[in-house]
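Table S5 (text form). Sequence records supplied for joint modeling of the two-component complex.
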Amino acid sequence: MTHKKLLNLTFWRGVLLVIFAGGIYSSVLRFAGGLGNSTALSDEFPWGLWVGFDVLCGVAVAAGGFTISAVVYIFNIERFKPIIRPTILTAFLGYVLVIVGLLFDLGQPLRIWHPLVMWNPHSVMFEVAWCVMFYTTVLFLEFSPMLFERLRLGRPLKVIHAITIPLVILGVILSMLHQSSLGSLYLIVPAKLHPLWYSPLLPIYFFISAIALGCAMTIFESFLSYRAFGKHLELGLLSELGKVIVVVLTVFLVLRLQDLAGRNALGLVLQSSYESRMYLAEVLMGIIGPILLLLIPKVRNSHSGLFVASVLVVLGFIMNRLNVSITGMEASAGRSYFPTWTELSVTFMIVAAGFLLFGLAVKYLPVFPPEVRIHQGLQDEPREMVPNLIPRSLLLGSKAVLATGALIVLAAVSLSYSGLRYRSVSLQGVAEQARMVDIMNALKYYQMAPDIVFAQAESSPGKVVLRHSTHVDSAQPNCTICHIKAFRILRNPQAKEASVLSGDMHDEHRCGSCHNGQKAFSVKDDCTLCHSSE
Amino acid sequence: MNQKNKKGILFDSTRCIGCGACYEACKERNHLPKTVENFLDDELSDKTYSTVKSRNGHFLRRFCMHCEVPTCASVCPVAALEKTELGPVVYHSDRCIGCRYCIQACPFNIPKYEWTKRTPLVRKCDLCSDRLLAGQRTACAEVCPTGATTFGGRDFLIAEARRRFRSSPGRYLERIYGLEEVGGTDVLLLADISFESLGLRTDLSKQPLPLLTWNVLQKIPNFVTVGGVLLGGIWWITNRRDEVRLAERRTQGS
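The corresponding structure-token record, covering 788 residues in total, follows.
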């Protein structure tokens, strides 16, 4: 039975296969060719898609885990218990994939352990590194009961249960630190990040928006599990999460607007610029749109309404992180950034791996309580998977919600698109007029280097003295004409005489490079021109 | 850190004749390959740690500013970049993990990466720290034929800059770039036209940038302890409430 299922190639399996093939090929390119040959990264743009999406968004996906576990274990609101395991699973997978993403992004991935032993507590990146390591461990422990139950290991299960509360508290604190620290990363670039996104409140923004995303991801993946695996949908709970999203996003919006106003940057929003368009698109899609949708009880309590709103939150969130990490940095970098297909395909592979692992875990581990299985999905009818992935409610009813959602996305896309046209203009630097430099004044300070007496070889017809005065254009001295490689410019403290050079002085790398009969008289001409007879 | 021992460079663009001696000396000292035909066209890269640019009719050198409180050293998670006592900000390549936060964070866009290498490292000027330890000047200062690049103690260089302001009134802008920028740098620049027109950022704050993140980071220990106690307390209360409720129900039932 299992064997037969493996061979069954459905549409989505085909898609996965293509994504993985592309991703693996790109991985080879990345690790064999280096970052410069496989990515659009450069000295002007050292952080791209892998930081902006794989790390900044990947970590935030885990926010549902700590939010829900705090609600259930710390605040003892037990009714959220049915959704705690899928959120923990998402969080754990999110962190594992962030580490995978980091291995791609780091220039020296084999040294990823260095922050463990080489400390710099002044660095936000150090905090980030420690949070990743600690919280991945905590998440694994929180996830482990699913494994232990499946493997029927009673002993370790007991141990984990005994330390649940300290574990959850540790997890919540680490997660809060980590979410905010990703925002703190950008606190140190006040002169580089565009004022629409730079704010002293960045750590708080990153934390708040991560909570909204965590809730939205919980809704999103519940729907996917419901459709793909026939898992029970806790609609009541999810609609409550919808309410939480409204509150969190409203706080986020008010804080951001107030902060913009406080920094006299509110006017920037209405300016016609690349950044303002991207900002508006982000706020419309990720904040205002979902708030308006979820405020309506009818929408909040419907399958399609919740689904559409959560998708908007996720898209808007991704846009926010990319705006901070890419859009907002482009003007100061003086160049635009767009990921190469290698960067894109690695990212697709990582996301696909997330979906695949989540699916496998749901299938083989007790992620959802078994008794609430109400109908059979994928397992018996794999061919129905394609239509199944789109919620039926979206296809039949609630057309208004779907239309509104599509409209919002469309508006955001067209805003961003119109913004992109401003980008090409704003990034074209003003061409500097080539002007001759007046060095008359500076030349007063010019001190010609002394003459150099070369040591005489046995076969030499006479000593050679190099006079800087006859070799340098005193109106426009250029030392690099001779002082390239062969003629050292730095004094050698050991050498008493300027014997410095090995090999034949006459060859085309040394005196002969100019004394070739074209630039200056040839070394084959009269020897006494250089070799004095005295 | 002993401020008196701090060494630095004073670059006076009014004395620079664009001869390229500093450019060549830097290449030689660091064993860097030739990158361009005309050195004035070269940009900072993993193969060029010091450039001479012609901007608005003036020559300007660009190389590491060797900040008093370096942003790069602050952001590096593994302390691969370090401000040494003599002044140079040096790089311990064996520590670097390649996160490129230094490149992202440097307010002067100095550190450059070996993008084409399979195990890349960060590259930048180290103020010839080995020469300094041996009591020598930097390579660029040693070869400069006009004194546009002057090496010395930071305090001496500031005094020298002010002396030049006094002795040639009206010639200079009478501002030392690097005196206060991001908390001060050990490389100081003089010019007779505005620093903006030389392509330098003049909107940098006077406070060292690492303070921006340190203000947040230093709160972590308190956050962890207070947060832990708070969450534990909340759990204790809510848990206790449930226990009491259960117990009451039990007594009512019996």
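Note: The helical segments of chain B are 21-29, 71-75, 101-105, 129-133, 139-143, 154-167, 210-217, 220-253.
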